[in-house]
Amino acid sequence: QVQLVESGGGSVQTGGSLRLSCAYSGYTYGTITMGWFRQAPGKEREGVAARRTDGETCYLDSVKGRFTLSSDNRRNILYLEMNSLQPEDTAMYYCGRVVVSLPWCPPTSKYVYSGQGTQVTVSS
């Protein structure tokens, strides 16, 4: 049974940093495409970052150079390192299994399944 638990969200000021974690179980990293998406109230879901099984990673244009997706395969954790946070990054962030589609970039917002999410709030 697949389980995903996100953590690491919080409230920061503009320019601050957070590292989100996604602890997963039920499958082996590298065998499926995983990633992060976000959803803010009143806005459409956005794919933020995704990594294919071949290691190719795609980022939303607005987070390129600020966000980094990484993993700890031993501990089964997927990370999203977020730097230089802006108020427009405020949203609930979710990790999960990506629905693989073309084009690969920008990252899709469609997911097979995801966790419960972790809230990120950036104040100006």
Choose one word for the global shape. Answer: globular
H and E order = EEEEEEEEEEE
Number of strand elements? 11
Strand share of the residues? over 45%
Q: How is the topology of this model organized?
A:
Layout: E1 3-7, E2 10-13, E3 18-25, E4 34-39, E5 46-51, E6 57-59, E7 67-72, E8 77-82, E9 91-98, E10 111-114, E11 118-123
Parallel strand pairs: 2-11
Antiparallel strand pairs: 1-3, 3-8, 4-5, 4-9, 5-6, 7-8, 9-10, 9-11
Task: Explain what the structure shows.
By secondary structure, the chain is mainly β. The chain has strands spanning 3-7, 10-13, 18-25, 34-39, 46-51, 57-59, 67-72, 77-82, 91-98, 111-114, 118-123. β5 and β6 form a beta hairpin. The model has no long low-confidence stretch (mean pLDDT 94).
Give a quick rundown of the structure.
The protein is mostly beta strands. 0% of the residues lie in helices and 50% in strands. The N and C termini lie far apart (41 Å).
Write out key terms for the chains shown:
four-stranded antiparallel beta sheet, mainly beta, 124 residues, seven-stranded mixed beta sheet
